[in-house]
Amino acid sequence: MNHANVPHKTHWSRHAVFWDSFGSPLRPHREDVGHVVSHVLRETPLPVLLLMGVTPEYARTAWPQGTRMTAVDRCPEMIRSVWPADHVPTTFRVTQAEWTALPLANHAVDAVIGDGITTVLPRWEEIDTVLSEVHRVLRPGGLALMRLFVKPVDSESPDQLLKSLLCGPTLGFHSFKLRLLMALQPSLSAGVAPRDAYRWWKDLEATHPEALVRHAWTQDQRHTISFYEASPDRYWFPTEAELTRSFVKYFTVKEVIYSSYESADRCPLFVLHRKN
Q1: Is residue 139 within 8 Å of 110, Cβ to Cβ?
Q2: Which pLDDT belongs to residue 21?
Q3: I need a labelling partner for 52 at 20 to 30 A (CA). Which of 80, 103, 153, 269 fits?
Q4: Would you say 136 and 142 are in contact if contact means Cβ atoms under 8 Å apart?
Q5: Is 5 inside a domain boundary?
Q6: Domain count of the chain?
Q7: Which pLDDT belongs to residue 135?
Q8: CA 260 to chain centre
């Protein structure tokens, strides 16, 4: 997930420092990486890639020697702390820039890889500009592979989530955070403020401490939700249908791949072909 002009209190600077405390579904699983690599190499054996964000799982995987990658992220702390500079080829580079103005020439890349990028836009209305930029930098016929967070059509309410925490199967903490954020979003146009998730969590700690014990969440995992406390950011969780409507102007949806790990049903991989 991404993020020059990050607000001073944005939680991404803290996420960067504690990146190793996060896991799937908030970070891509090896299943996702395998799908991405196989689709890219099926199209071109020696690709030129754009990575939107600095997701290390995609940078550090076993790309063919000679592969070129440009990673673009707006958050300097994410670049400093998360980009695996010492573990990638010299043909890989990272640059700080906005996704609405990608620092690449027209038709410069064979494939674009993104992870959770539609959720972390400053405003949902920017999605068309971002997709237009992705279309611009892709070569004709190029591929965009986007693992994106989608809200179920029949999404659970906060009360339903609470009932599940108390009586349902045990849940990983990062799956819990994702479900909580989605449950708190009233509509796509409104989005959801992460600080509201923090407040809900503090109420849970005070009123149902048994839930924390039941799910055996570690202190390091639980600490990550504190980063939301004073964040001014908003997140956006569209449904799969809402995302598809956003894509249609620039891309053909070739395939939607659902992996098998916990909450993978909420973060499918969209395989998009550039419309010429």
Answers
A1: yes
A2: 79
A3: 153
A4: no
A5: no
A6: 2
A7: 98
A8: 17
For residue 117, give the CATH number of its domain: 3.40.50.150
> How far apart, in Å, are the Cα atoms of 264 and each of 31, 151, 167, 175?
10, 12, 21, 9
| Amino acid 57: pLDDT | 96
C-alpha torsion sign, points 138, 144, 150, 153: positive
* 2 falls within a domain: no
DSSP string of 116-174?
STTTT-SSGGGHHHHHHHHHHHEEEEEEEEEE-----TTPPPHHHHHHHHHHS----HH
Residue with tokens 């030129």: 48
- Contacts (Cβ under 8 Å, ≥6 apart) of 30: 57
Residue type, 152: P
* 143 in the same domain as 84: yes
With a cut of 50, which residues of the chain have pLDDT below it? 1-9
Distant-in-sequence, close-in-space partners of 162: CB < 8 Å, separation ≥ 6: 204, 208
Q: What is the pLDDT of residue 8?
A: 39
pLDDT of 11: 72
DSSP letters, 89-115, are: -TTEEEEE--GGG-SS-TT-EEEEEEE
Pull the structure tokens for residue 166: 């108390």
Cα angle 180, 128, 103; round to 5: 105
Residues in the chain: 276
Q: Which amino acid is at 184?
A: L
- Please tell me the distance from the alpha carbon of residue 237 to that of residue 119, in angstroms, as a whole number: 6
